[in-house]
């Protein structure tokens, strides 16, 4: 079980932030590593919104560090999963996830609720992935993709991910996709986001996101014919 944020002793850095993930091993449980992100958040005070509009209710917790911890725990693993699949670099992933939440904290007063906090965070994370210049071949599929498929989806080759040989073939096929197609496929098939959400995250129109997904899926289907 993750220790509470208050128990961590951060290391100060020159710019006043805390390099809390620098020494975290790639084998460190993600929930524990993500918990340390709280120490990275600048101490800038924000005013608490008083509006009760629908948009304000959708906003991340402005100025509430405890509530922001919840945001980190809720969305951190998915951001970590996405960044790791896109970069294949554990050190880069730690930096990307940390920088995503630090940026979110700094920008939180400008969030207008036009998208969900999840979509907003993924958009920041996607930009950090591009900025890292470390988009490489895909890494082994995450545990979520190892879950046995539902019997109702047995005709779908992508549902048959409990088979080790299939996983290896899917992994190789994903690695060969262009980064944009891989990103769209991961956000749609793994994170179960809608095309409008994916478009917001990757600066695409919904139709553009749908097109990338179609091309990625067509390529994967061609590569995985034996499982159809």
Automatic annotation (TrEMBL):
Record keywords: DNA-binding, Sigma factor, Transcription, Transcription regulation
Source domain of life: Bacteria
Matches recorded under SUPFAM superfamilies: Sigma2 domain of RNA polymerase sigma factors, Sigma3 and sigma4 domains of RNA polymerase sigma factors
Limits of the RNA polymerase sigma factor 70 region 4 type domain: 168-220
InterPro entries: RNA_pol_sigma-70-like, RNA_pol_sigma-70_dom, RNA_pol_sigma70_ECF_CS, RNA_pol_sigma70_r2, RNA_pol_sigma70_r4_t2, RNA_pol_sigma_r2, RNA_pol_sigma_r3/r4-like, WH-like_DNA-bd_sf
GO molecular function: DNA binding; sigma factor activity
Protein name: RNA polymerase sigma factor
Organism: Mycolicibacterium rufum
Lineage, opening ranks: Bacteria, Bacillati, Actinomycetota, Actinomycetes, Mycobacteriales
């Amino acid at each position: 079980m993750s220790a509470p944020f208050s128990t961590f002793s951060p290391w100060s850095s020159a710019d006043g932030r805390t390099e809390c993930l620098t020494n975290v091993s790639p084998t460190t449980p993600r929930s524990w590593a993500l918990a340390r992100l709280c120490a990275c958040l600048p101490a800038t005070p924000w005013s608490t919104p008083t509006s009760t509009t629908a948009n304000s209710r959708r906003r991340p917790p402005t100025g509430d560090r405890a509530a922001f911890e919840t945001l980190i725990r809720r969305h951190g693993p998915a951001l970590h999963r996405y960044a790791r699949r896109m970069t294949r670099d554990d050190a880069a992933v730690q930096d990307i996830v940390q920088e995503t939440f630090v940026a979110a904290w700094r920008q939180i007063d400008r969030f207008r609720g036009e998208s969900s906090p999840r979509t907003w965070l993924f958009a920041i994370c996607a930009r950090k992935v591009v900025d890292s210049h470390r988009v490489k071949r895909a890494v082994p599929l995450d545990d979520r993709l190892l879950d046995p498929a539902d019997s109702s989806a047995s005709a779908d080759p992508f549902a048959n991910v409990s088979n080790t040989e299939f996983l290896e073939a899917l992994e190789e096929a994903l690695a060969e996709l262009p980064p944009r197609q891989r990103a769209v496929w991961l956000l749609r098939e793994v994170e179960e986001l809608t095309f409008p959400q994916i478009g917001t995250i990757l600066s695409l129109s919904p139709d553009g996101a749908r097109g990338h997904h179609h091309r990625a899926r067509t390529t994967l289907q061609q590569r995985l014919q034996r499982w159809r």
